[in-house]
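Feature request, filed as a ticket because there's no other form

It would be nice if the structure record came with a short human-readable summary line next to the tokens. Right now we just get the raw output. Example of a typical job, pasted below so the devs can see what we mean:
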Amino acid sequence: MSLFKNPKFPSALFVTASLIVFLVAASFYFIFKFNFFVDKIEAENILTEKQINNKYFYKEAVAKDPYITRKPSLKNLIKGPIISENDPILGNLNAKVSLVIFSDFSCTFCANQERVLKEVLKKYNNQINLIWKDYPLNNLESESFKAAQAARCAQEQNKFWPYHDLLFENLEKRKENDFINFAQNLGLDKNIFVNCLRKQEVDKKIENNILEADALEIYGIPFVYVNDLEIVGEINEDDLSRMIELELGEIDN
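Raw output as currently delivered:
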């Protein structure tokens, strides 16, 4: 039975009109999904090029196309670490060389790498900076994730780096009472710290870093970027210094 007793449009025209309506609706849907996707990785918090080493971390074709009609994967969206206001930064913000480390507070190899990073930070002083990225086990109940939560809560009271050091100096202490004791040792407000541990905002920061690491196909930690150069696994001070000096332009390739 026909919906219309006396159809006025030829069937071909009806099909064409239906197809146009479908394509328009699909375009709006994917534009919406794209905007949601960018929000998920907190693109609004990206620092300006001038603020962080004149680097542009988005792939230009995607970032500059306001009429994009497909949902890109994060892997296709970025070409390097996303430097955000959420990321703890140690050293000169405007340094020529940035070290970005994806790491885990429950990782012994990462603790070893931290000692090397401390030495090069002293050695190169204001010429470099260090940017932290969380890459714990993607499990909110794991000690690995909970340590990351605790450090981010210390960050809320401007004590990320001292807390970061305590976590790596005490790898065997990963209970909530341990985290609270560390906070009190640093003079943090206990109530604010404990309440922060329950906040979903803290989890989101960590989960965003995990999404980013997966998109960059980081398959092992510690994983360090020296500007655009990639290092997987531990690197000694001499080799890391050579890479830094290459980026500083102090030695020839």
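Something like this underneath would help us a lot:
The first helix runs from residue 11 to 40.
DSSP finds ten helices and five strands in the chain.
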